[in-house]
Every structure is written in C-alpha cells, then in structure tokens.
Amino acid sequence: MNTPENTAPWHPVARSADLRPGANIVAGFAEGQELALWRAADGTAQAWENRCPHRSVRFTLGQVIDNRLACAYHGWQYEAGSGQCASIPAHPAMQAPRNVCAKTFGTTEAAGMLWVHLSPEAPPAPDTLGGAVPAGWHFCRTLTVRASAGTAREALARNGLAEGPAAPGWRGRLGGTETVTLVLDAQPGLAFIHLWTEAAPGSAAMKALHAAARQLRTEIEALPQG
Questions:
Q1: Residue 186 in contact with residue 173, Cβ under 8 Å?
Q2: Residues 17, 20, 26, 29: is their CA dihedral positive or negative?
Q3: Which residue among 53, 143, 214, 216 has its CA within the 20 to 30 Å range from the CA of 104?
Q4: Euclidean distance between CA atoms 210 and 141, whole angstroms
Q5: Using CA atoms, how far apart are residues 163 and 181, in angstroms rounded to an integer?
Q6: Distance between CA 183 and CA 7 in Å, rounded?
Q7: What is the reported pTM?
Q8: pLDDT per position as a tens digit, 113-137
C-alpha cells in the first residue's frame, strides 16, 4: 500500500564527488528545506536540517570532526547518522543531553548524485535512480533557474526532452548534444537542473551544451511564473 511517505520523491541535491569525507559542508535545498550536506570520515553521506538545535546557527558554518558535525557557535558536536548530540567541548565532563538532536533526512547515492528524502526514515530508494544517468556519461553543469521545478520540466519538454519511462531523468538533445537532466525542486520559484552528456569534456559538443543551457535558463526565466 502506498503512503504519502513512500510515494514522496527522492531529490537529487548534489554531486557525490562534491562531498569529501571528513571535510567540507555543502549547503543544499529540497522543496524549501535548507540542508547541510556532508560526508562523515567513514564515508557515509549525511543530509541534515541546516540548523543547530542548540541556538539555531547554520551547520554549514561549522566543521566536520571525524564522524561528527560541530556547530560553529558553541562547538556542540552531533553524531553522523543519528544526529544525536555527543559532546559539548566547553564542558567535557558534562554528559551530552539526550534530548538534543539534529534533524536528519534519508540519503542514498546513485548515478553520481546524493539523493535526499525529506524523512528521517526514508523508504528504500528505487532501483531506477541508478539508471538516471547512463554509465560513462560526463557531468556538464548545474543550472540554477529562478522558476519552479514544474516550469523547468515544461521547458525541457518544449525543447524535445522526454522523461524516461523507468528513471527520473529527462533525455534528449540540447544544442545538438545528447543530454540527460535531473531537475531539483529547491525552493518555491527556484529549481536546479543537473546536466550530463556523452560528449567528452572540452569537446565542441560539450561547449555547445553549455551555450544551450544558458539559453534554456533565459527561456525558462522569461516564462510567466504561476
């Protein structure tokens, strides 16, 4: 039986390669939810609400310490996976409060992307996510458009791209170059379009796709926004 939780979408929020183990914290969005994206030292990808539960400071201002995320304000540290507060450096002898926990979301990695489900206990990711981008294709760019995700998808359809029958990607030709796109519903009136192509980096076909992507953004943003 389908429920609202297990029919909700998985969102392609960032490239997996952009998250380095035990290093950077990347800001992301999905359906208006602001996210802190990071990879623990053990390699597991994390997507948390970008807000420390102690004083609501953005986690993206903090740092990754092994398998914990540390807030920039008072340094409180939270465990990867659970989001549970594990350490208060200013009071090392004090036991961390068990009722303080960062809000976490379900994650999976497929097709070179980090996907987020806006639920802490997400249903299993569909196998089709892995087929969203053909093996061996090259990432081109992420296009930021000031329009809704629905408007972006309508524009892709008008440009001859079609949604795959078994995967979330849209496939067709942009600027004469075979392309696959994934659309992220980031915020109201803001969408990200991730583009891949079979064309080699630096090739004339790749450059043509970059130019077509810029034209596509202009086209989308010129449309009436509902």
A1: no
A2: positive
A3: 143
A4: 8
A5: 9
A6: 17
A7: 0.91
A8: 999 999 878 899 999 999 999 999 9
Of 52, 45, 53, 180, nearest in space to 106 by CA: 45
DSSP 42: T
Report residue 116 as tokens.
Answer: 């987020």
Beta-strand runs (E) in 136-215: 138-145, 162-163, 170-174, 177-187, 190-197
Residue 151 has phi, psi (to 5 degrees) of -65, -40
Half-sphere CA count of 206, side-chain side, radius 13 A: 13
Percentage of the chain exceeding pLDDT 70 = 95
Q: How far is 177 from 43, CA to CA, in rounded Å?
A: 34
Per-chain mean pLDDT for the chain: 92
Residues sharing a CB contact under 8 Å with residue 200, sequence separation 6 or more, in sequence order: 138, 206
Position 70 pLDDT exceeds 50: yes
Query: Confidence class of residue 164 from pLDDT cuts 50, 70 and 90?
Result: confident
Q: What is the number of other CB atoms lying within 10 angstroms of the CB of residue 181?
A: 28
Phi, psi of 61 (to 5 degrees): -90, -10
| Amino acid 191: pLDDT | 97
The structure tokens 């208006």 sit at: 32
Tell me what the mean pLDDT of segment 189-200 comes to.
96
Q: Which residue has the tokens 């196998």?
A: 127
Q: What's the alpha-carbon Rg for the chain, to the nearest Å?
A: 19
| Dihedrals phi, psi of 192, to nearest 5 degrees | -115, 135
Q: In what order do the strands lie in the sheet with 85-87?
A: 63-65, 68-70, 77-79, 85-87
